[in-house]
């Protein structure tokens, strides 16, 4: 059984079948449950959860045109990004930004992550991240 996170993004998708196939078979998410009659699914990956629902005109705030995810990217923290990256490559799925190591300042520490970005079939930008730990910032760089 699973617990629901306090915040779960629900993405409107153009084809629930295509999106479920992509998230399960390529990105290695797991199906928590679905309501086929509503064209809805709840998926998870290492504690991250996402809901998918085929566009139905119900909660739309404006016209949806590709890419649906303009202006947002979803950071998904996993233990090992290589398995997801390798699955994308094996499935000849395009990578938006290739794997790189980045360090970001968080107050007086630097937090490192290995990351890459990919767009899902509807244009939502997904940033897969593997934590690299943290280190102190040199005093003269603050």
Automatic annotation (TrEMBL):
Residue stretches making up the VOC domain: 5-131
Domain of life: Bacteria
Keywords linked to the UniProt accession: Antibiotic resistance
Signal peptide: none
DNA-binding in keyword set: no
UniProt cross-references to PROSITE patterns, sorted A to Z: VOC
Swiss-Prot/TrEMBL GO biological process terms: response to antibiotic
Record keyword Zinc present: no
Similarity-based family: Belongs to the bleomycin resistance protein family.
Name of the protein in question: Bleomycin resistance protein
Organism: Guptibacillus hwajinpoensis
